[in-house]
Amino acid sequence: MGLYPLEFSECYLDSPGFREKIKSHEAELEKTNRFIKELYKDGKNLINATKQLGMAQRKFAQCLGEFQFEYIGDAKTDDEKCIDDSLLEFSSFLKNLEDQRELMMRNITETLMKPLEKFRKEQLGAARAERKKYEKDTEKYYSSLEKLLNMSAKKKEPQLQEADSQVEVMRLHFQEESLDYVCKLQEIQERKKFECVEPMLAFFQTVFTFYHQGFELANDFDHYKQNLQINIQNTRSRFEGARLEVHELMKRIREAPQEYRQTSPISSEGYLYVQEKRPPPFGSSWVKRYCTFVKEQKILHMVTFDHRSGGKMGETESVTLKSCVRKTTDVLDRRFCLDLDITDRPGTVLTVQSMSEDDHKFWMQAMGGKEPLGHYLGRTCSKERGIDAQLDDLGMGFVQNSINAIEKRGINDQGLYRVVGVSSKVQKLLALMIEEKSHEVDLSTSEEWDVKTITSALKLYLRSLPEPLMTYGLYKDFINPAKSGSPESRFQAIHCLVHKLPDKNQHTLGLVLKHLANVADHSKQNLMTVANLGVVFGPTLMRPQEETVAAIMDLKFQNIVVEILIKQHQKIFAGAPESCPASGGPVLLAPTRQSKKVARQNRPLAVYNPQALDIKSVSPDGSSPTPAADDGSTGSSDSVESQPSSHSPPLATPSDTPPEKSGHTPLSSPLSNTSTGGGASLAGSRETDLTGAVSSDEAQAEESVPVARKAEAVYPCEAEHDSELSFLIGAIFTGVTPSREPGWLEGVLDGKRGLIPENYVQFL
Known about the structure:
The chain is of the alpha+beta class. Helix content is 48%, strand content 11%. A six-stranded antiparallel barrel has the order 1-2-3-4-5-6. It has a five-stranded antiparallel sheet with strand order 10-9-8-7-11, with no helix packed on it. A hairpin with a 2-residue loop joins strand 9 and strand 10.
């Protein structure tokens, strides 16, 4: 778990645990401050090093351009001419590249260095000043309190009352400062997420722009590539036989694998720290012991062993285990702890601490550990006073009445649902609409109530329900998919949960979401995008039963859930899904980026070439028009967000689990001889020999045009690159043809052309 939320209520109690939480927040801010200072220092060093690199590159380019080979004889061979031309071109390329690098370095100070230093000084510096003030107020208040308590009770009553009043004023001031300081700490903790990352994003955008310019420059000398490849190949073929033998031997030695055997750990053995209690004046101590748990007899053997004392082994102690329960951190301020009930010592509980989270899970499983009984029950969210809102026919009628009025009178109003109405008018309207005669009022034609009053009354009604539309019981189930998993698994989980709602809740939620989708469709006029609506309706449609700072921290996940509901409302409310994961089952996580590299690690390095596969301007029938100039926009599929995909290992036959996509690099290699025309990716690559000739069979194959077909998706897929398509099961592709990438097809979906895994579709 990360930092604990600082509850405002704890400011009044000021417990040791609360102070420890504050210290952890302060330590995190100090760490952030040191990080930014170090990053700023490294950034300056990076700028200086880049300047030095630029100077070295220019000197190298100058030397390269001035260099000429000394040839024997009075003429140069074709290979020698090609080498001379290539060296000159490389020299020009490096000079142009350094011109672009200078432009990049001019922007780094403004996009990275200054914003980070400004955040460190203004925000983190303010937090440090607040900390000093808080510590000073703490010292002042508690000193005064001790002085008051030490006053003699024999003093006159006016003196005592005056002293009490002074301390009371200081107490109130101290608590106010405590509230402000806690709020400031948590605000900066949240602010740093974007204040630190946003400059880095701008920095990397500048860097990638530089690299893109390098790519453009690389295209300018592409015509030298063919001759240089042939020249290198010819030079390589002249190597002496002995030299080849030496390199072959060296290659075999380098490729010889080093074998390391990892000893398998015994399932129930490992180190544990055991708490040893002492008489009251001395407290307790923690002793590291190597433990062996025999599952059948439930006997735990423990031997003291300290590596720092030269590996000295102590005596062995054995106990019989009755039960094992996880010990929570609110009971003991140590992580990874277990309480062991020992049968040998009735009434005695042995507390042990494992070495890590994984080790903790291992011991829990080995000893049959259980979770502790009982849960914290905080205070429930209070209802809006004076409003007796119910999800009955009157309430649902008011929802429909309000939606009709808003869509008729104010669908294009800027800030719709964000601009609030007058509180008294809002409550008056809501009270009127939940009465028996509410059906007599048509809000779409009534001029008495403006749009902002109607929108505010609708939100107030939804918040005033005894239970939110998405219910308390399903709150955690809705939140969990938003915290992890791929976009497809999130959608599937939320789809299933919606159809677990009571009928009235589900019906009303469908009305609201359909309306919000309509509002989002008019976002160019009303400025209310799906993200903005998620912020407004996240806490309105769903909320936890407990009102705590920790719950407030989950608002961002509520917004994500509502965004998914708005985007996918048609599919979600079209009907219940055919199958749902087991209740409480784990959310399928997308593979890490590191695992994605395995399939590509043996492929050649590639450079992005947008002309090799024009996926931005393709007609719906699958034909490739003349390549247009790149406007810098990026295509995307509406079905699934572009995220790392979640794929299982390949299977020989179709099943419910999607096969693994073939590893590919959807970019053109700088050494490939593929034509860069608009339809080149469908014609296949041209392989040339040392003379550059092309066989008649290959030339004939290039002239043939593949037959475009239709195909249907049998598994969902999420794109990993802009050149790939994202899709759900059942998606229909048109203009499907073979791709030059092995194991991939090319097709059109929703007007966008891109790559499709061959084993994810079936032809129609």
